[in-house]
Amino acid sequence: MFSGTARLARSLRAPRDRRKPDRRAQIRDTSEMTLIADLLWSLYFFLSGALDALLGRHRKRYVTSVEIKAPRDIVWEVSSAHSIVFEGPPRLEIETALRPGTTDVYEGTVRVGDKIVPMVYREVETRPREALLIEVMKEGSGPAVAPGHDYFVACKFDDRPQSTLLTMVHELTHDTFLSRILVPLGARLNARRLRKHCESLVGTASDTSGDKLGSALLTGLLTYASFIYLFDWHFAAVLLALLVVHEAGHAIAMRWVGLPVQGIYFIPFFGGVAVSAAPHRSEAERGFVALMGPGFSLLTTGAFLIGSHLTGDELFMQLAFVSAILNGLNLAPVLPLDGGHVLDAAMSSSDPDIKAAVNMLALIAGIGVSVYFETYVLTALLVLTAPMLLRSRTATRHATPITPASCGWLVAGYLATVAFYVAVIAHYVA
Q1: Which whole-number Å values give the CA distances from 199 to 84, 158, 262, 375, in the listed order?
Q2: Which value, in Å, is the radius of gyration of the alpha carbons in the chain?
Q3: What is the pLDDT tens value at each position of the chain, 430 positions in all?
Q4: Do 302 and 423 lie in a common domain?
Q5: Do 331 and 191 belong together in one domain?
Q6: Which end of the chain is more exposed for a tag (fewer CB within 10 A), N or C?
Q7: DSSP-based three-state secondary structure for 307
């Protein structure tokens, strides 16, 4: 038996009062995880992964503990289920069944949002309501599911007063640097997802509307502080206000097409994001929601232009110029910017290889332009996008491809919006 399997199995069988917790990369989560906390953990995993890579450490173990306000039976049933749906964002669906001719190997798919990835795993040890040990098989699984080899996941269930303590151990040998970030971060996010699902089943889930507002305010304040660091406080306030309008456009578009809005969050030094609580059902829907951020901002930009014309005040023209620059950059046809999503949605009916090649060429061009203009935060974002673009070529999309008519309307709206912002910038520069 592989030594990692034996070690994990021994830890599951150890007496509860004698087993010492593994302090290596341990994450203890007993409160609602916020976006800003996830960003900080991402930074920690990036730095830790970089150090491990430099030191040649490829085999890693990550321990995640989460306290769930639900009976142990419920937590066990959810954790060991072969078919289950977790609400988003993004929505996660796992559908597996026993492989014919085997007694312990399960195969199926994992759908995250609109992407479907194959998954194969083997049940190494199962002790109902107490512990579970599985091996994620690299052969037959997509790289998003098995980002390394000799990948084992162990779960331990302990009773607590009016709750259950679930401890999950992920141990694997990394194949890529990106997996050093995504595996521990994914373990953290999945623990939150599992807790939310279990607590909703027994009615102990708390109202998160206040958390959503608090996350928006907190991330907004941090983003405002980052803008003050880069600019003066007046200009920082203008940028944040324009971001609010832009993200409100995305949120309004989501509600317009019937998608629930999870919340609006801001990212220090960069911008913001409006998050849907469900995946889009069609590529036309995705393109419309992406375009409506810059599209809704046409109203404020136009209002600034009218104010400049009526009053002659240069301040209004400056505000229109800043709004045009902010939204015009977002319309660049490079993922993950809004223009990139519009382009990707418009090409959803095209050959996947052609679409992947176009997206990669646009990404390379975007990185070059961002380096030329010394916008290094955007450069970093685009570089981090490259591995996701490479994997998206092999992922299956569940959303309905765009129709020719919808594609025509989407492209026409995109070009008209781009033309407006280019005209505003050209007028100001002239």
Answers
A1: 15, 16, 18, 43
A2: 24
A3: 344 445 555 555 544 443 343 333 343 333 333 455 666 677 678 778 888 888 888 999 999 888 899 999 999 999 999 888 887 666 788 999 999 999 999 999 998 877 888 999 999 999 999 999 999 999 999 888 898 989 999 999 999 888 999 999 999 999 888 888 889 988 888 888 898 889 888 887 655 555 566 667 777 788 888 888 888 888 888 888 899 889 889 988 988 888 888 788 888 877 788 888 777 888 889 899 999 999 999 988 998 899 888 888 888 899 999 999 889 888 888 877 888 889 888 888 777 777 677 767 777 776 776 677 666 666 766 666 666 555 555 445 567 888 889 889 999 999 999 999 999 999 888 7
A4: yes
A5: no
A6: C
A7: helix
Q: Quote the CA–CA distance of 398 and 280 in Å, as a whole number.
A: 9
Of 202, 236, 270, the last residue of a domain is: 202
- Half-sphere exposure of residue 292: CA atoms within 13 angstroms, side-chain side: 19
Give ∠ CA 89-383-152 in degrees, rounded to 5. 55
- Domain interval for residue 179: 3-202
151 and 8 in contact (C-beta within 8 Å)?
A: no
Residue 374 contacts by C-beta under 8 Å, 6 or more apart in sequence? none
Quick one: which of 105, 148, 158, 153 has its CA closest to 133?
Answer: 153
Question: What one-character DSSP code corresponds to residue 33?
Answer: -
Say what the alpha-carbon torsion angle 41, 46, 50, 53 is, to the nearest 10 degrees. Answer: 90
Number of domains in the chain: 2
Rounded to 5 degrees, φ, ψ at 32 are -60, 125
Q: Domain check: are 14 and 115 in the same one?
A: yes
Residues 302 and 187 in one domain: no
State the Cα–Cα distance between residues 291 and 253, nearest whole angstrom: 9
Both 198 and 344 in one domain: the answer is: no
Query: Measured between alpha carbons, how far is residue 41 from residues 38, 182, 285, 354 in Å?
Result: 5, 11, 32, 36
Q: Which residues pair with 117 in a beta bridge?
A: 110
Whether 217 is in a domain gets the answer: no
* Phi-psi domain of 128 (left: phi exceeds 0; alpha: psi -120 through 50; beta: other): beta
Residues recorded for the chain:
430
Looking at the fold, whether 69 and 172 belong to one and the same domain comes out as: yes
CA distance 237 to 281: 36
Question: What is d(CA 329, CA 338) in angstroms, rounded to the nearest whole number?
Answer: 9
3-class SS at 122?
Answer: strand
Q: Are residues 9 and 122 in the same domain?
A: yes
